[in-house]
Design a protein that fits this description.
The complex is a heterodimer.
Chain A lengths: L1 E8 L3 H9 L1 H7 L3 E8 L2 E10 L2 E15 L3 E10 L2 E13 L6 E13 L2 H33 L2
Antiparallel strand pairs in A: 1-7, 2-3, 3-4, 4-5, 5-6, 6-7
Chain B lengths: L31 H5 L15 E7 L5 E7 L1 H4 L4 E6 H5 L25 E2 L5 E7 L2 H9 L2 E6 L6 H4 L15 E9 L2 H6 L3 E9 L11 E7 L4 E6 L4 H12 L6 E5 L13 H14 L3 E4 L2 H7 L5 E10 L5 E13 L8 H4 L12 E10 L13 H19 L3 H8 L8 E2 L5 E2 L4 H12 L1 H13 L3 E15 L18 E7 L5 E5 L8 H13 L6 E3 L3 E2 L16 H27 L7 E4 L2 E4 L5 E3 H10 L13 E6 L16 E15 L6 E11 L6 H20 L30 E6 L20 H12 L14 H8 L11
Parallel strand pairs in B: 1-12, 10-11, 14-15, 20-21, 28-29
Antiparallel strand pairs in B: 1-5, 2-4, 2-6, 3-5, 7-15, 8-13, 9-10, 9-12, 11-22, 13-14, 16-17, 18-27, 19-20, 19-26, 23-24, 24-25, 27-28
The chains are: A alpha+beta, B alpha+beta.
């Protein structure tokens, strides 16, 4: 499965970068994410509840920042396991100046591979479920950016 | 499920020498009372004190190297007794014996994956815990790290040299391949007026038994004896595999099979799990139980053989099939656990029901990153019979002939029976053309054609499809020597023990396992028939227990063999017991043994009319034996082994009698296809079968209906479909679709009775049905859509496939508005 999209934040690039580079804020943006442990400057772990159709349960994720160019580019891999299934996600995030001097445009592209029990229902249902999760993540990120901007750099 | 209209003819059975004729009567099945009132005892009903339960950790990848497995967290969870990885188990057991010749005999197959995973759902680790739920929770905590490898997802590309290799130890994905050649194939093609080239795909599916695989192993450290409760339906094929894998002498293994809730062949390949629970019980010193989940059954149980044919048919203008040549690719999945037996089992029906003499098939059996395949109703033959039926339809369509006429022209004729096919198999009687005519009559073809025409004018598409198939039973195991001449298997046999106790009651036990086919009833009928008793007065032991039931290495429920093999053994044992009773009764009644008639529970002198109840015979023989001369045999327990006169086929010319009996069936389907949605509505379904003499016609009818419904759902609904990434896309019943009573109309069954020239009592095995519904439905859908000129190469007719075939096509005769 491939997902991509873009979003514009009403905040300068350094603020957005700080937020997306910080595991604590990223963890807050992800729905039902808990047990965050930052294991190194470029890796963190945690778990998230996943539920699609009849298959529901908890996934444990390992995140690894594979590549970064501060302020403009981030490549993040996530490897999740649980309920007899696997999810492997490669995400590329690019930041660029937005329409106004204080705006940042973020483009993202994610490639997800689902395995095991979840894969069986992937074709029909997973797309929708993943779409909703991704939307939630970016809504939450926008909110966090607003809050971060309000709190000052 | 579905009601049936039937008109069974009278059953011609050889008259019993004595007693009342119970063979041939549709008495209600004895065991159905306990099955339908909640008193059946299945594997999970067996409870042992202190039992631990397991949960498996499965691979989410089709093909990957196992980098590491971290069991620390899972091991520390409450109630967890132990966690074992594949590597741990590998140190405790030997790999399973492989049937294939070199190099595929070097494949290392263990109960859990070692080093690599080769299909989605393959177990990689096992958690043993106090209860099932704790085990499942802890299994979630086992962390497996994989390096993902590219998967091999279809048989033809698996065979190519550039494909990734599943089993590095053998350096190839080839399990086995060989050429079967009979007759003068090239000569036949030289004479052909027409050569038809086709490619067919027989899709991957299995069955849906209500009870899934399960096992309970209990190792007694005091005696060193392992008691293995299992619902494996071929326990004496399973036991030696368990013994050798565990390095345990066979006299220390007791195998018990309780009631089994369906198998359809799918419970034969469960031995890796049997080894697993056994080794865990030996390690932990307590009973260990496994009950499979439906998702595990679908992903990692047994799938039926998926097969692709690239085929050419040489045909004369009049529709006579002269020869077939081509390639067949069997997609074996990741391990060969019963394979490559499927690469020869099909040859039981190499020529199907047809008279042509020339066949060359290069058969390939290859590994792919899918669930291992194994026996599934119609095992390996249904695929080949599908090919024949589709070829018959193609011949008719290409030559503008009637599909029925083409079959009739090519059928082996009744006056040629018993008929030896060019590969040495012997068709043991029947009238194929008459069965075809009867199906055409039952369907009332002329009025169907008129209805079809009228509906087409209104834009509705009705179609009729008729297909025929053989239902071969009682295989000769020596056929596996065609693929590997060194295999120590041949023949087929079954054992039955019939005994009378000192109260004169009669007991029966035999080797075949009962998965709901009415074996206890059938056995009681045969024994009652021979001993002049009522079937209610014969106690057939339920299930199977190696301590109480006789068996041979061939015992089990597979190949539709119980009526034939079990029947032969029961007949032999009952007749010998009758002889012994006659000798004792003759002494007591002061007459000759030949004068003794067994009837209504008595031994009676025909001459004098004097009689003794069997309770007196049993009492004297076993408890009051000084009333009898010391040299008179008072043993009233008879074990008899029935062995049909098979010979070992030559692995050079691949000829021989591969099986004992050939029932046959002709099925007719009437469908209506919605050209817009591609949905197939099955409107009517008829079946004529001939399994020779029937021991219990009601049981036969149940088998015929069951096989028909099984084929219908396979054609229209079920598919174990995989994505190109190796993921199983039908991992639960939400995607693996089974038929309900709403999908299948009543199956109308009629029986022909042509006694078998090979089976005991003139009986043929029945029950697998040869997958007749699959070609019948493919033919019916093509017939319905013939105005659009679409044809189907696949055995699976989903709305999606039909729709895509219809895309951009308009009917040749435009429908009026």
């Amino acid at each position: 499965m491939e997902f991509q999209g873009n979003v514009e934040f009403a905040a300068p690039r350094e603020v957005v970068w700080k937020i997306i580079r910080d595991p604590t804020t990223v963890a807050k943006a992800m729905p039902d994410f808990r047990d965050l442990v930052v294991t190194s400057p470029t890796s963190f772990t945690g778990s998230a509840k996943v539920g699609v159709s009849v298959i529901r349960g908890s996934f444990r994720f390992q995140f690894q920042i594979e590549e970064e160019n501060p302020g403009s580019f981030l490549r993040l891999s996530a490897r999740g396991r649980g309920i007899g299934s696997s999810v492997d996600i490669q995400t590329r995030v690019t930041l660029a100046d937005g329409g106004s001097p204080t705006a940042t445009r973020m483009e993202w592209k994610a490639e997800a591979q689902v395995g095991g029990a979840l894969a069986g229902i992937a074709q029909r249902l997973l797309d929708q479920a993943a779409d909703r999760t991704v939307r939630d993540i970016f809504t939450n990120l926008s909110r966090l950016v607003r809050e971060g901007t309000a709190a000052g750099p | 499920m579905s009601a049936a209209r039937t008109s069974p003819r009278s059953v011609a059975v050889p008259a019993p020498a004595e007693g009342t004729g119970w063979v041939g009567k549709s008495i209600p099945t004895k065991e159905s009372v306990r099955f339908t009132t909640g008193h059946g005892s299945y594997l999970d009903d067996v409870k042992l004190e202190g039992t631990a339960h397991i949960a498996l950790v499965h691979s989410p990848y089709a093909h990957a190297r196992i980098r590491s497995i971290d069991v620390k967290e899972a091991s520390a969870m409450p109630g967890v007794l132990a966690v074992y990885t594949g590597e741990d188990i590998r140190k405790l057991v030997d790999p399973f014996m492989q049937l294939a010749p070199p190099p595929a005999d070097k494949v290392l197959d263990y109960p859990l994956a070692v080093e690599k995973v080769r299909f989605v759902g393959e177990p990689v680790a096992v958690v043993v815990a106090r209860d099932r739920y704790l085990a499942a929770d802890a299994a979630e905590m086992v962390q497996v790290d994989y390096d993902v490898l590219p998967p091999v997802m279809d048989a033809e590309s698996a065979a190519s040299p550039s494909a990734p290799i599943l089993h590095e130890a053998i350096g190839t994905n080839r399990v086995w391949d060989g050429v079967y050649e009979y007759g003068d194939v090239d000569g036949a093609f030289a004479q052909a007026d027409l050569v038809i080239q086709e490619k067919f795909h027989y899709h991957r599916f299995n069955s849906a038994p209500l009870e899934l695989n399960a096992a309970l192993a209990s190792f007694d450290r005091r005696t060193g004896e392992l008691t293995l409760y299992t619902n494996n339906v071929m326990p004496m094929f399973c036991m030696p595999l368990v013994a050798s894998s565990l390095r345990l002498p066979s006299d220390r293994i007791r195998v018990i099979v309780p009631d089994v809730g369906g198998s359809f062949g799918n419970k034969i390949n469960s031995f890796p799990y049997m080894v697993l629970v056994s080794v865990l019980s030996m390690q932990l010193g307590r009973p260990v139980k496994w009950t499979e989940l439906r998702s595990e059954f679908l992903a990692a149980g047994t799938h039926g053989n998926e097969r692709t044919f690239q085929i050419e048919a040489a045909v004369r203008k009049d529709g006579t099939l002269l020869g077939l040549r081509g390639e067949a690719f069997d997609d074996t999945g990741a391990y060969a656990r019963y394979e490559p037996a499927g690469a020869v089992i099909w040859a039981q029906v190499a020529f199907s029901m047809y008279r042509h003499k020339n066949l060359r098939l290069h058969f390939h059996s290859v590994f792919t990153n899918k669930c291992p395949v194994g026996p599934n109703r119609g095992y390996s033959r249904a695929q080949h019979l599908f090919l024949y039926e589709r070829i018959m339809d193609r011949i008719a369509d290409r030559l503008g002939l009637d599909r029925g006429e083409v079959r009739e022209r090519n059928f082996v004729r009744a006056d040629e029976m018993p008929y030896q096919a060019p590969n040495g198999t012997v068709l043991d009687g029947g009238d194929y053309a008459r069965a075809l005519h009867r199906v055409q009559e039952m369907l009332d073809l002329p009025s169907l054609r008129a209805q079809q025409k009228a509906l087409r004018a209104r834009g509705r598409y009705l179609g009729v499809g008729i297909a025929a198939a053989l239902d071969s039973a009682g295989n000769n195991f020596a056929q596996v020597r065609v693929i590997n001449p060194h295999l120590p298997f041949s023949g087929n046999s079954e054992s039955a023990r019939v005994w009378m106790d000192m109260m004169g009651r009669v007991h029966v036990a035999m080797g075949p396992t009962n998965q709901g086919q009415g074996h206890e009833t059938m056995a009681s009928q045969i024994v009652a028939h021979e001993l002049g008793l009522n079937p209610e007065d014969v106690h057939a032991l339920p299930g199977f227990d190696s301590h109480s039931h006789p068996y041979t290495g061939h015992s089990g429920a597979y190949a539709s063999r119980t009526a034939v093999m079990g029947g032969g053994a029961l007949l032999g044992a009952a007749r010998e017991l009758r002889r012994r009773i006659q000798v004792i009764a003759a002494h007591l009644l002061k007459t000759a043994p030949e004068d003794i008639l067994l009837e209504k529970g008595e031994a009676r002198s025909r001459r004098t009319g004097n009689a003794l109840p069997l309770s007196v015979i049993g009492g004297v023989a076993l408890g009051n034996s000084l009333e009898l001369p010391l040299d008179m045999d008072t043993n009233l327990s008879v074990t008899y082994v029935y062995r049909p006169p098979f010979r070992i086929p030559s692995h050079v010319d691949k000829k021989g009698n591969f099986t004992l009996t050939y029932s046959y069936q002709v099925h007719g389907a009437v469908v209506e296809v919605d050209p817009e949605t591609g949905k197939v509505h099955l409107r009517r379904y008829v079946a004529v079968d001939d399994c020779g003499n029937m021991i219990n016609p009601a049981i036969v009818e149940g088998q015929v209906i069951g096989a028909a419904v099984h084929g219908i759902e396979a054609a229209l609904l079920c598919e174990a479909k995989y994505g190109a990434d190796g993921q199983l896309l039908a991992s639960s019943f939400t995607d693996y679709l089974c038929a309900t009573s709403l999908d299948v109309p009543p199956v109308e069954v009629e029986h022909f009775i042509t006694p078998s020239t090979a089976g005991p009592m003139g009986v043929r095995g029945v029950g697998e049905g040869g997958g007749t519904a699959l070609p019948a439905l493919a033919a019916a859908v093509e017939d319905a859509l013939s105005p659009f000129g679409v044809t189907f190469q696949d055995s699976h007719l989903t709305p999606e496939r039909i729709q895509s075939a219809m895309r951009g096509r308009a009917p040749t005769v435009p429908s009026p508005p």
